[in-house]
Amino acid sequence: MKVEVTRTERGWAGHFICADDCLFRRNTLLEYGETKIVVSTVGLMIDHFKNKDKNGKMKFSQIGCGRNFETMAFHAQRVDDRYWDADVSKQVNFDSEWMIAEEDADDRANDMHEKVVDEIIEGLKSGNEYKAEKESSR
User: Fold this and answer.
1) What are all long-range contacts of 54-61, with beta carbons under 8 Å and residues at least 24 apart?
2) How many Cβ atoms sit within 10 Å of the Cβ of residue 97?
3) Sign of torsion over alpha carbons 127, 27, 105, 61
4) Are 22 and 60 in contact (CB under 8 A)?
5) What is the DSSP code (8-state) at residue 51?
């Protein structure tokens, strides 16, 4: 029997302590047998101290050193017997691009997220168990 990867798009951020301040948030749960992985992309964090420039344009803060968008992946954990969410202590490494330095790049951030999802789906199908990394490599 061939097992398929189940993909579920969800409406909340999967990582980043300031994700509530980010205008861009994607969260995709991938399920393959017993393996469950969350791919999360965040970006365009509102700068609450200088939220508009002199021309009225929205100002953004970087979410990390030199980046305005980032994608990360984590094994999932069960929360309140209701849903699976990212266990940020169990990072999953991947090879695809994971950060974008420019602000005006939400289209590229979507593409980046999709490439990571595709890479992990292909990896799962080919037998990669994506052993959890104890410490972040990013």
Assistant:
1) 60/103
2) 12
3) negative
4) no
5) -
Write out pLDDT tens, residues 84-106. Answer: 999 999 999 999 999 999 999 99
Provide φ and ψ at 109, rounded to 5°. -65, -40
The token pair at 34 is 């017993």
* Tokens of residue 1, six digits: 């029997």
Q: Both tokens of residue 104?
A: 């005006």
Q: Taking the CA atoms of 78, 83, 84 and 86 in sequence, report the sign of the dihedral they define.
A: negative
pTM of the model: 0.89
Angle at 123 between CA 99 and CA 72, to 5 degrees: 25
Give the Cα separation of 79 and 66 in Å (integer). Answer: 33
- Predicted confidence (pLDDT) per residue in 106-136, tens digit: 999 999 999 999 999 999 999 998 887 665 5
Residue 71 contacts residue 92 (beta carbons within 8 Å): no
